[in-house]
């Protein structure tokens, strides 16, 4: 979901209370920085900027700070982090909060303070009185993770600012390697921009060279090699992972997870489920389902069943110590060439 924003303040004016909520911490932190920069100059930060962790500090302490006149300046900024009481999460809170104090402040905030509430949660509990009050009275900014389509547009637009083009295949790989995490995408785009230079073209090989792969992504490449029956490539990749001190049993667990996803995706797809429906049913990101749908086309359902059985046997052999762990997976890859 792309960033959405709702604000009760006039354009250019500071609101007394901001509610920044959602799972996209990169965007939320950018918004927080903009508010702070507008409210305080550099000399005022030391005396008039306060941060509170509400899992360790009662809300009334923070409110008392917001009601205190600023030092050597016109405004005070008070940031409230981790307000779990705005959610429906069942947690044993270490601190008891006087929410009546917060509610009274929301209805009549101090004119000289800016309170920023950082609720980096997927959902807020809309049934709670304090949440309703904030939604009504605060300037609300919601930012959640972007979907694949929004991220593609973001990548193209951001590179376009430096007159840089990017191949579709390069975008595909960048999204895969970053797991559609906006903060990672931005970091890697900055790196690629410096490497390519203004007016250049980013190709797949540039992404392969500069963007690091996680173990999960290396295992995805292993599965891709199995799909294409490129057993020698799979063995080379596996050997490199082992030489980099990755544990065979961890690699096996990730292989099981990926092939299980392929199997269930193929089953559901055969039943007429679309990408979004499969993602909701399996509780995985739609982009992962998209990739799984592509990979699963290389197998019949019975073949995936057989692979799952072979991986279960490999797991048993590893855990019972019947054979060298590394050799067990090498044999698994070699079996694929014989089928």
UniProtKB/TrEMBL annotation:
<protein>
    <recommendedName>
        <fullName>DNA polymerase III subunit delta</fullName>
        <ecNumber>2.7.7.7</ecNumber>
    </recommendedName>
</protein>
<dbReference type="InterPro" id="IPR010372">
    <property type="entry name" value="DNA_pol3_delta_N"/>
</dbReference>
<dbReference type="InterPro" id="IPR008921">
    <property type="entry name" value="DNA_pol3_clamp-load_cplx_C"/>
</dbReference>
<dbReference type="Pfam" id="PF21694">
    <property type="entry name" value="DNA_pol3_delta_C"/>
</dbReference>
<dbReference type="GO" id="GO:0009360">
    <property type="term" value="C:DNA polymerase III complex"/>
</dbReference>
<dbReference type="GO" id="GO:0003887">
    <property type="term" value="F:DNA-directed DNA polymerase activity"/>
</dbReference>
<dbReference type="InterPro" id="IPR048466">
    <property type="entry name" value="DNA_pol3_delta-like_C"/>
</dbReference>
<feature type="domain" description="DNA polymerase III delta N-terminal">
    <location>
        <begin position="18"/>
        <end position="143"/>
    </location>
</feature>
<dbReference type="InterPro" id="IPR027417">
    <property type="entry name" value="P-loop_NTPase"/>
</dbReference>
<dbReference type="GO" id="GO:0006261">
    <property type="term" value="P:DNA-templated DNA replication"/>
</dbReference>
<keyword id="KW-0235">DNA replication</keyword>
<keyword id="KW-0548">Nucleotidyltransferase</keyword>
<dbReference type="InterPro" id="IPR005790">
    <property type="entry name" value="DNA_polIII_delta"/>
</dbReference>
<comment type="similarity">
    <text>Belongs to the DNA polymerase HolA subunit family.</text>
</comment>
<dbReference type="GO" id="GO:0003677">
    <property type="term" value="F:DNA binding"/>
</dbReference>
<keyword id="KW-0239">DNA-directed DNA polymerase</keyword>
<keyword id="KW-0808">Transferase</keyword>
<dbReference type="Pfam" id="PF06144">
    <property type="entry name" value="DNA_pol3_delta"/>
</dbReference>
<feature type="domain" description="DNA polymerase III delta subunit-like C-terminal">
    <location>
        <begin position="216"/>
        <end position="335"/>
    </location>
</feature>
């Amino acid at each position: 979901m792309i960033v959405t924003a709702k604000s009760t303040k006039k354009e250019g004016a500071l609101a007394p209370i901001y509610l920044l909520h959602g799972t996209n911490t990169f965007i939320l932190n950018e918004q927080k920085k903009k508010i702070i920069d507008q409210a305080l100059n550099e000399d005022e930060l030391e005396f008039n900027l306060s941060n509170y962790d509400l899992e360790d500090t009662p809300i009334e302490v923070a409110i008392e700070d917001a009601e205190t006149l600023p030092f050597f300046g016109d405004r005070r900024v008070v940031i409230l982090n981790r307000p779990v009481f705005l959610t429906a999460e069942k947690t044993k809170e270490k601190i008891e909060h006087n929410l009546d104090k917060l509610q009274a402040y929301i209805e009549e905030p101090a004119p000289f303070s800016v309170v920023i509430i950082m609720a980096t949660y997927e959902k807020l509990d809309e049934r709670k009185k304090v949440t309703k009050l904030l939604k009504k009275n605060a300037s609300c900014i919601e930012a959640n993770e972007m979907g694949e389509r929004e991220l593609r547009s973001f990548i193209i637009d951001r590179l376009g600012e430096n007159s840089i083009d990017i191949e579709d295949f390069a975008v595909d790989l960048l999204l895969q390697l970053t797991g559609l995490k906006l903060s990672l995408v931005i970091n890697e785009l900055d790196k690629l921009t410096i490497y390519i230079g203004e007016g250049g073209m980013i190709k797949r090989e540039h992404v392969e060279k500069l963007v690091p792969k996680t173990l999960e992504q290396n295992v995805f490449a292993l599965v891709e090699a199995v799909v294409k029956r490129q057993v020698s490539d799979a063995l080379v990749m596996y050997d490199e992972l082992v030489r980099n001190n990755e544990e065979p049993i961890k690699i096996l667990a990730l292989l099981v997870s990926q092939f299980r996803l392929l199997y269930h995706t193929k089953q559901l797809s055969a039943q007429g489920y679309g990408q979004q429906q499969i993602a909701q049913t399996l509780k995985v990101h739609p982009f992962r389902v998209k990739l799984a749908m592509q990979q699963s086309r290389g197998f019949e359902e019975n073949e995936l069943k057989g692979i799952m059985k072979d991986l279960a046997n490999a797991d048993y052999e590893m855990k019972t110590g019947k054979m060298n762990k590394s050799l067990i997976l090498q044999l698994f890859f070699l079996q694929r060439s014989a089928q």
